[in-house]
């Protein structure tokens, strides 16, 4: 979730009301943002990813002042025509087909303002535009460029300009390897023959989206008053919303929006930004049923206005239960009327809903296999065994320590080397536990029940998951007898008869390992651990252990 | 305390010690006299101290002992003595060396000492000539104080006389003649109570019955005899039980709550295709949670198989344009291959999705819960685990509403020991309403965030169930609650598997 720092003075001025600190904190979190802290003049909030329109002081204040009833209702934004043209050419890489732009005039840029604009641009880039993978935003002082402006694809070596905060003119290809921002985002354009560039009427390269602007014509400073704002990328709706979010925030900074005809590759001219609210139908009965409320049209209107919407009463159809909601152009998250219902709930106040438990009769059922495992655990704890709980992830090195190769499934991109494989059996984890407890009192009797993973193409995931039971005991006189006693106790309590066969297993002392079957089905194995293996785990006490497949054991138990 | 009662409770070892205490107070001598082994004596003394019969004090004293050279000089005489003896007449240095067999070093030290004692003179001729003085002759008849001192060793450092102290200081300056050792010794003093016991006629063990044996019961030999009474408060060695792991005790408890509330248990795999873990839950394919940064994908087998075509088609359509739900969808091109990627489940909500997919309309209303492991690609540290238990619940009920959600959560958390619950707006891709659940911490009286909850979006429910029915849902990470109950501050301690910790950990009792 993006965390945003808001200037409290700017925020309060925009809201038009100063709330006491506690009230402010309370209202912010009930509006639906995670308030981290308010420190001096800074409000730190985490804005949920569904509300990119709240990533700036202006957007946040707009939502907040409506919410507290200061400035409720749909905020009207309009654009005059700039009379300029942007032409999107077919030479663009297919991965980056769209460009929209507009002009904002009459802005006053201070240091603080520049910080606000850059924060919004960056946060939109990270969240809504998915670290620029969906799109990039650029701003330019209007007086430095001339219309019409072209958005086109060029050979990376033919692109030559001085990128932002860089001393020299370099090529597009060089930007990707030499400029820090170029390096950071180079992966987005990897493998593209041509890179997208904005070129103005004089042939000046203005920027190379979504990587970087030109230092000479693409840098806002305190003297800037009028700007050219563009957004390019591959996701039509997202780009359109992002442009609305930027444009309306700049308008709330005192700018006047001028639209531009953006001629797309198909020849259609789209006048941008599109600030007209969308209409959505709201079924009040649906809303009331989900919220357990009995809201009337006028209540819904009032609540929707608290969330910045417009509302028109519906006609008499559906008993007047439906209304028309005007959704601001900057709202990205309204996919379905359920989203309006949620906003009504927020305006109503989550804190004002009473807790209710409906009287529906259902009978609880526990998972029978869980119960089976739980009973075995009870038996083992009765024998004095301590249950361990180890991780499902581990390292491949256990195969070496166990002297026994079992294929382990590797994770993609685990952050820690020691935990980059899925466990394939449980005994290594038992020995690991023993090896980490050599300073503790013996005897050490432990067990664990857990899932292990092996490849199996018959499964949905091509991986078979099996519940296993592992038991290990270790003390100065631990030997095979002790582990066989455990096996026989478990088996006899399930009325099962284990059959044993000598097992050659490189983790066990030869002649002291057994493979366990029940009714001809292999269910597990046990034995005395090889001194070499003990040594690999730095154990100086004998240990014997057992591993049983609980899925099979349960099946056999059900059969018997 | 009644002295007779004390006598009744004396252990045979204590009786033996008591008898010996009449004459001895020194540990070693007590051992000898009582014929007890050191360990037995030590144990008996501790018991007796507990009963107030003796007082034990660890006393450490430092003793002066002859060191390596000191021991040799005790046999051969101090070098200055040997030198003085050899001076029957005036000698040159080589002559002295020959006569005494002393080392150069010893000779020069000895000359220095003897000069200081005015026992010799050194005259410079062609060579150095050394001769005994009158004082020296006197010393032939009496001992140097150093010699006397050496013979008296070992001596307690603390109790030296002025003369001894002088000799010690002198010898200390020289090489390896004296050394000190510190010996710890138990000092035993008999208390007033002990003194009263000493004058009593304390019988030896035959008068009392010690262990009750099957033999005695058979023969009845215990009759008309007295059992020795025990010090019921005496410390005993610890024993350790077998137990469920404390995190599983907590899981077991939470399961019980949901079962009591009429919920059925869901279970299932840890590894799922992204289809179930993400797509079925209306999480767009470019959502950051689907990055390798946050989630464990599998290298090989990288992909799994998709469920039946109809469900896949519905899911694809709902992502792309909302299908028949009335939603716009996420407006992008949904890719089947992305959806096949295997992933260690990031939430138990994947089980809810599968459960809803298997429901028939006639099964409704229905309530389900699951408690199980979930995974996040994190580096282990004091506040992060890469796997943890999550508690999940859903209520699939055509009449369910937002107030019910708050109701179920209140009930659950009340049973978990939290008196107050509140919800705040939140965001999850698959719920709307979405609510963060805070509970009031019973001790700190502060709100803490414990769970996420909401009502599943129509885009989730309709493709799975074929119909849009409200499904209220919640999920809470369990580690925080468990860690807090056990006062664990480093979250890794939940799965440290330190047997000492496991053995001593209190039971989960809420």
Describe the structure.
- The complex is a heterodimer of chains A (560) and B (510).
- With 560 residues, chain A is α+β, with helices and mostly antiparallel strands.
- Chain A folds into four domains: 3-67, 2-Layer Sandwich (Phenylalanyl-tRNA Synthetase, Chain B, domain 1); 80-272, Phenylalanyl-tRNA Synthetase, Chain B, domain 3 (3-Layer(bba) Sandwich); 278-350, 2-Layer Sandwich (Phenylalanyl-tRNA Synthetase, Chain B, domain 1), CATH 3.30.56.10; 368-559, 2-Layer Sandwich (BirA Bifunctional Protein, domain 2).
- In chain A, strands 4, 5, 6, 7, 10, 11, 12, 13, 14 and 15 form a ten-stranded mixed β-sheet that branches.
- In chain A, helix 1 packs across helix 3 (57-67) and helix 9 packs across helix 11.
- The longest helix of chain A has 17 residues, at 236-252.
- The mean pLDDT of chain A is 94.
- With 510 residues, chain B is an alpha+beta fold.
- Chain B has three domains: 3-53 and 191-227, no CATH class; 66-175, Arc Repressor Mutant, subunit A, CATH 1.10.10.10; 247-504, Bira Bifunctional Protein, Domain 2 (BirA Bifunctional Protein, domain 2, 2-Layer Sandwich), CATH 3.30.930.
- In chain B, 38% of the residues lie in helices and 21% in strands.
- Chain B has helices spanning 3-8, 12-21, 27-34, 38-50, 68-76, 79-86, 93-100, 104-116, 134-139, 145-152, 162-172, 192-198, 214-219, 246-260, 274-277, 309-321, 336-340, 349-357, 402-415, 458-465, 479-485, 499-504; strands at residues 54-66, 91-92, 120-124, 128-132, 155-156, 178-190, 208-209, 226-227, 264-265, 271-273, 297-298, 342-344, 366-375, 387-396, 421-425, 431-440, 447-456, 471-477.
- In chain B, the strands form five sheets. Chain B has a seven-stranded mixed β-sheet with strand order 9-13-14-18-17-16-15, with helices on both faces. Chain B has a three-stranded antiparallel β-sheet with strand order 5-1-6. Chain B has a three-stranded antiparallel β-sheet with strand order 2-4-3.
- In chain B, a hairpin with a 6-residue loop joins strand 16 and strand 17 (447-456).
- In chain B, helix 2 crosses helix 3 (27-34), helix 16 (309-321) runs antiparallel to helix 20 and helix 18 packs across helix 20.
- The mean pLDDT of chain B is 90.
- Classes of the chains: A alpha+beta (560), B alpha+beta (510).
- At the A-B interface, helix 2, helix 8, helix 11, helix 12 and strand 19 of A face helix 14, strand 9, strand 10, strand 11 and strand 13 of B.
């Amino acid at each position: 979730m993006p965390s945003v720092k808001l200037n409290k003075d700017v925020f309060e001025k925009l809201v038009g009301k100063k709330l006491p600190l506690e009230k402010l904190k309370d209202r912010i979190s009930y509006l639906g943002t995670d308030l981290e802290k308010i420190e001096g003049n800074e409000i730190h909030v985490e804005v949920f990813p569904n509300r990119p329109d709240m990533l700036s002081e202006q957007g946040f204040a707009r939502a907040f002042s409506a919410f507290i009833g200061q400035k409720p209702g749909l905020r009207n934004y309009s654009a005059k025509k700039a009379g300029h043209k942007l032409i999107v050419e077919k030479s663009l890489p297919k991965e980056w087909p769209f460009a929209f732009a507009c002009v904002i005039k009459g802005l006053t840029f201070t240091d603080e303002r520049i910080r606000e604009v850059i924060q919004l641009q960056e946060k939109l880039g990270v969240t809504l535009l998915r670290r620029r993978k969906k799109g990039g935003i650029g701003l330019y002082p209007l007086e430095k460029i001339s219309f019409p402006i072209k958005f086109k694809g060029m050979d990376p070596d033919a692109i030559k300009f001085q990128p932002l905060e860089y001393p020299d003119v370099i090529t597009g290809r060089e930007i990707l390897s030499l400029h820090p921002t170029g390096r950071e985002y180079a992966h987005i354009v990897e493998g593209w023959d041509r890179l997208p560039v904005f070129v103005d009427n004089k042939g000046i390269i203005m920027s190379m989206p979504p990587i970087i602007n030109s230092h000479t014509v693409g840098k806002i400073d305190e003297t800037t008053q009028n700007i050219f704002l563009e957004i390019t990328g591959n996701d039509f709706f997202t780009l359109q919303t992002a442009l609305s979010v930027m444009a309306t925030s700049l308008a709330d900074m005192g700018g006047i929006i001028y639209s531009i005809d953006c001629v797309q590759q198909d020849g259609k001219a789209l006048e941008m930004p599109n600030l007209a609210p969308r209409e959505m139908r709201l079924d009040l009965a649906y809303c009331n049923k989900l919220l357990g409320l009995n809201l009337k049209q006028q209540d819904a209107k009032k609540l929707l206005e608290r969330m910045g919407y417009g509302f028109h009463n519906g006609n008499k159809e559906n008993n007047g239960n439906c209304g028309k909601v005007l959704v601001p152009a900057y709202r990205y998250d309204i996919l379905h009327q359920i989203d309006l219902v949620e906003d009504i709930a927020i305006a109503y106040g989550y804190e004002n809903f009473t807790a209710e438990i409906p009287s529906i009769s259902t009978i609880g059922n526990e998972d029978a296999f869980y119960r089976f495992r739980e009973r075995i655990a009870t038996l083992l704890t009765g024998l004095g065994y301590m249950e361990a709980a180890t991780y499902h992830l581990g390292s491949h090195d256990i195969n070496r320590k166990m002297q026994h190769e079992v294929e382990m499934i590797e994770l993609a991109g685990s952050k820690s080397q020691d935990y980059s494989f899925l466990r394939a059996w449980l005994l290594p984890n038992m020995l690991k536990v023993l090896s980490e407890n050599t300073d503790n009192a013996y005897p050490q009797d432990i067990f664990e029940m857990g899932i292990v993973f092996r490849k199996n193409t018959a499964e949905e995931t091509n991986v078979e998951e099996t519940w296993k039971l592992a038991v290990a005991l270790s003390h100065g006189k631990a030997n095979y007898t002790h582990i066989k006693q455990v096996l026989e106790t478990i088996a006899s309590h399930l009325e099962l008869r284990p059959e044993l066969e000598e097992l050659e297993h490189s983790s066990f002392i030869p002649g002291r390992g057994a493979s366990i079957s029940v009714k001809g089905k292999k269910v597990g194995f046990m034995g005395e651990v090889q001194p070499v293996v003990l040594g690999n785990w730095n154990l100086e006490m004998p240990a014997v252990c057992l591993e049983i497949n609980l899925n099979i054991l349960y099946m056999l138990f059900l059969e018997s | 305390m009644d002295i007779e009662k004390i006598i009744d409770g004396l252990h045979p070892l204590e009786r033996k010690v008591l008898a010996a205490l009449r004459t001895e107070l020194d540990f070693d001598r007590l051992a000898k006299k009582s014929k007890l082994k050191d360990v037995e004596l030590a144990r008996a003394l501790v018991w007796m101290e507990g009963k107030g019969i003796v007082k034990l004090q660890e006393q450490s004293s430092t003793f002066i002992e002859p060191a390596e050279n000191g021991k040799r000089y005790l046999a051969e005489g101090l070098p200055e003595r040997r030198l003085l003896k050899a001076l029957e007449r005036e000698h040159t240095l080589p002559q002295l060396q020959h006569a005494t067999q002393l080392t150069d070093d010893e000779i020069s030290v000895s000359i220095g000492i003897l000069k200081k004692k005015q026992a010799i003179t050194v005259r410079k001729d062609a060579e150095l000539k050394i001769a005994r003085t009158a004082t020296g002759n006197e010393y032939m008849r009496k001992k140097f104080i150093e010699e006397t001192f050496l013979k008296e060793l070992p001596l307690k450092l603390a109790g030296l006389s002025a003369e001894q102290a002088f000799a010690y200081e002198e010898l200390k300056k020289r090489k390896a003649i004296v050394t000190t050792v510190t010996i710890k010794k138990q000092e035993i003093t008999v208390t007033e109570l002990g003194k009263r016991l000493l004058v009593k006629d304390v019988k030896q063990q035959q008068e009392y019955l010690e262990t009750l044996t099957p033999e005695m019961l058979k023969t009845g030999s215990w009759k008309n005899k007295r059992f020795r009474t025990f010090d019921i408060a005496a410390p005993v060695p610890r024993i350790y039980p077998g137990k469920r792991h404390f995190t599983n005790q907590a899981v077991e408890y939470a399961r019980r709550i949901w079962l009591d509330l009429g919920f059925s248990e869901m279970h299932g795999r840890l590894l799922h295709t992204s289809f179930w873990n993400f797509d079925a839950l209306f999480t767009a394919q470019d959502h950051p949670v689907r990055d390798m940064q946050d989630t464990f994908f599998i290298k090989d087998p990288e992909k799994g198989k998709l469920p039946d075509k109809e469900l896949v088609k519905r899911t694809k359509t709902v992502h792309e344009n909302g299908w028949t739900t009335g939603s716009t969808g996420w407006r992008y091109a949904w890719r089947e291959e992305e959806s096949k990627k295997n992933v260690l489940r990031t939430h138990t909500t994947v089980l809810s999705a599968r459960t809803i997919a298997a429901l028939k309309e006639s099964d409704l209303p229905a309530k389900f819960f699951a408690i199980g492991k979930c995974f996040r690609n994190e580096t282990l540290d004091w506040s992060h685990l890469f796997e943890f238990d999550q508690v999940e619940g859903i209520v699939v009920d055509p009449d369910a509403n937002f107030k019910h959600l708050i109701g179920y959560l209140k009930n659950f958390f009340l049973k978990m020991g939290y008196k107050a619950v509140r919800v705040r707006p939140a965001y999850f891709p698959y719920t709307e309403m979405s609510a963060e659940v805070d509970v009031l911490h019973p001790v700190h009286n502060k709100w803490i965030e414990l769970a996420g909850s909401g009502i599943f979006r129509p885009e989730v429910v309709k493709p799975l169930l074929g119909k849009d029915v409200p499904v209220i849902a919640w999920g809470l990470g369990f580690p925080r609650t468990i860690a807090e109950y056990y006062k664990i501050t480093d979250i890794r301690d939940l799965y440290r598997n330190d047997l000492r910790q496991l053995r001593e950990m209190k039971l989960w009792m809420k």
